[in-house]
């Protein structure tokens, strides 16, 4: 921070993440329950929350930080790491291949894919230009029957212009 900024009372330094001075005991109960294997709903009930508040409580920065810290502690305490689990799955898949058991091979591949995050949803961003917005408005004005005819390929051509 510059002297001029100090004199004017302006703080241009990057915001530092502050830790709360006291841990919310209900949040601690939620984190403890989750770490013991409870579902989010069970953990919230144990802490005195209504399960409908699950998304609000679980998204709080304090809860996320406490969960991350607890998971890091558990990971440090355990001797088995993510790579070890992956290697165990790969060995099991090899054993299933040796025994000619395709069901178990697929099951193992499914576990590996989940672990690697291949089943995570993909996000797609679709942006419409002005010309496309006009065409979209025409489609929105059409009845369901007209739209079904277009989808089936039996409909008339919709007038419109697409600019690239």
Could you explain the architecture of this structure?
The protein has 164 residues and is an all-alpha fold. It has 3 domains: 25-77; 82-116, no CATH class; 125-164, no CATH class. The protein has 9 helices and no strands.
What is the topological layout?
Elements: H1 3-8, H2 25-35, H3 40-46, H4 54-59, H5 61-77, H6 82-98, H7 102-116, H8 130-141, H9 144-152
Can you describe this structure in just a few lines?
The protein has helices at residues 3-8, 25-35, 40-46, 54-59, 61-77, 82-98, 102-116, 130-141, 144-152. The chain is mainly α and 164 residues long.
Count of domain modules: 3
- The first-to-last residue Cα distance is 48 Å
User: Which structural class fits the helix and strand makeup?
Assistant: mainly alpha
Summarize the main sheet.
none
* Dominant shape: flat
Order of helices and strands: HHHHHHHHH
Number of strands: 0
Task: Tally the helices.
Answer: 9
Mean pLDDT: 78
Helix content: 55-70%
Low-confidence residue ranges: 1-7
Features:
disordered N terminus; single chain; 0% strand; 9 helices; 61% helix; mainly alpha; 164 residues
